Write the structure tokens for this entry.
Amino acid sequence: MPYEVCCNLDKHVVRASACSQKHTGENKAMRTNHKLALSVLAGVSIGVAGVKAIHAQQVKTPPAYVIAEVDVTDPTTFQQYSAKVPETLAPFNGHFIVRGGKTQAVEGEAPKRLVVIAFESAEKARGWYDSPAYKAIIAMRLSSAKTRLFIVEGVVPK
């Protein structure tokens, strides 16, 4: 069998077929290393994307408050309205922070009655106000009191 000088590996001259087999083995190892490197790079990329997605979900939205200034003109009807409000808040996780109570004027004139309702977000507050359950009783408030109503974003807790 004729020998061809293909390569000088380990200081041995080998036949072309043996040389070819040895190079093929090295190429497989190189391909495996490339695949491994690409897999690691893909894994790191997916990990970074996942961390960003999780962080984006953890960004807190500011709470919101419905603030109402109320001057009751028909106490009986307003009391009926007041009794029905809590059940309309429940689906939106709204809860009273201030509901009447004594008000001290420090500067300017104090409202007759003040109500503050807390929500997780302005969207939840608006959802409550626009809900069919609240819309069903809003006429009672409008007919029994003069009111000003606001939705205000709060500060994100740290």
Summary: Helices lie at 16-58, 75-89, 122-130, 132-135, 138-144. Strands lie at 8-9, 12-13, 64-72, 95-99, 113-119, 145-153. The radius of gyration is 36 Å.
